[in-house]
Specification:
The protein is α+β, with helices and mostly antiparallel strands. The chain folds into two domains: 116 residues, Probable inorganic polyphosphate/atp-NAD kinase, domain 1 (Rossmann fold, 3-Layer(aba) Sandwich); 156 residues, Tumour Suppressor Smad4, CATH 2.60.200. The chain is built from ten helices and 15 strands. The strands form two sheets. Strands 1, 2, 3, 4, 5, 6, 7, 8, 9, 12, 13, 14 and 15 form a 13-stranded mixed β-sheet that branches. A two-stranded antiparallel sheet has the order 10-11. A hairpin with a 2-residue loop joins strand 5 and strand 6. The longest helix has 13 residues.
Amino acid sequence: MTNAALLIVNPSSGRELAAENALRIEASLRTRHEDVEVVTTQGDGDAERAAATAAASGRGTVFVAGGDGTVNEAVNGVAGVGALGQIRFGIIPLGTGNDFATGLGIPADVDGALEVLARERELRVDLGKVNGRVFINTSGGGYIAEVSVVVTPQLKTIAGRLAYLIGGAQAMWDYEPVSATITAEPGALRLGLKLYAFAVCNSRLIGGGRLIAPSAIIDDGLLDVCLIEGMTAVEFLALARKVADGDHVDDPRVRYLQASSIVIDLEPEAWINTDGEVLRARRCEYTVLPGAATFLCGEAPFSKAQQTL
């Protein structure tokens, strides 16, 4: 692994703070890296292509100044050229939610994040994979993904984390639960349910700090799965209030399990959100890739090492 690095700056992340902080971030990284290439994204796929090129050219670290979606692109770029074992990732969390960065113990402010990254503490973490694409944090479907369709970049810029509340209210009243067949390993669990929402999680948080998977550990070799059965919008609103503290998993209409792989077949086709990347799917095939990626981290509150302290 070389000391050369790539810095990916997404000027559209969160409240659009990346551009004004880019020079300060670059200057900090240059104190520790012999060569820092800077790429500013302009659209979808730019971060993925830049990370793939950096990995192929032998750079050892990819830094991302952006949100979970930009990190997702960068990791997929490196995975696509088969170089996950050769690269480590560092996050300067400038997105709206920054949920995965929180799980790594990286502060939300630029100076705090740079201070943590400068310590160069590394952690090998799991990745999830769905239909050929890897993800770092969470893949959600049903109502969870419908919210993502409504929460546009423009709304995130204006409202910050409140965008998820605004988008959630807008999506809730028109959403209809979908039929789903779920098959999970280990244990060969098979369920047929009407689902209001589901989340397949590598880490614990979703939507800017909501504790959707309170038992998830980012390096335990398992995915945490939360299945929320069909109900009325009013009933779901009451349940959603419990998600902030993770109290929803005790509700009888919620099924919570851990699995190394899970297949969710949907009828009809539905929106799926994977680290902010939204697509439509009828069949979602999930697997976990244990210890597949290396991230620079702080105390990493959602890791096995921290849980034993």
